[in-house]
Design brief:
137 residues; binds zinc ion; five-stranded antiparallel sheet; 3 helices; 18% strand; binds adenosine monophosphate
Length: 137
């Protein structure tokens, strides 16, 4: 995705209006247009990069601090019980907009929002294979 045609570039940089909760020199935080729950927000970096693997160090250092700051305020304002931080990388992982973003999804006890997977089993063979490769390379 070219940054001249990227919708999140345009939103993050104020060329397209959005429901903005917070803005600073690096990020804009907006309400998601198709929310999973009330208050579902997105942290958008102002710089264009597609995903975690392309994320510059500077943005990487700041984003979790911002998620804590905005997430804490959102939790207070909404009086929700909890919050999911979700960040999809690649279409196989559910990414649909290819400008990095982090979801903040407010949660309440008993809500019916489905983000779950079926737990598998970590076999000894797979465990050894991954540990070997990961620590060697
Ligand atoms: P993902 O599947 O992680 O790429 O998430 C993309 C998110 O962006 C979805 O939750 C969409 O509802 C949201 N979205 C897409 N376009 C807009 C927009 N113009 N304004 C706000 N949220 C948007
Ligand atoms: Zn972009």
């Amino acid at each position: 995705m070219d940054k001249n045609t990227c919708i999140f570039c345009k939103i993050a940089n104020g060329e397209i209006p959005s429901a903005t909760l917070y803005e600073d020199s690096m990020f804009r935080v907006i309400l998601d247009l198709s929310p999973a729950s009330k208050g579902h927000a997105l942290i958008l970096p102002k710089k264009h990069f597609e995903n975690l693997f392309d994320m510059p160090e500077e943005e990487g250092k700041e984003i979790l601090l911002l998620a804590k700051k905005v997430g804490t305020k959102l939790k207070e304002v909404l009086s929700c019980d909890g919050m999911n931080l979700i960040q999809n990388n690649g279409s196989s992982a559910g990414q649909t907009v290819f400008h990095f973003h982090m979801h903040l999804i407010p949660r309440n006890e008993g809500d019916d929002i489905k983000l779950n997977w079926e737990p598998g089993v970590l076999s000894e063979e797979v465990k050894q294979l991954i540990l070997e490769k990961f620590t060697k390379e």
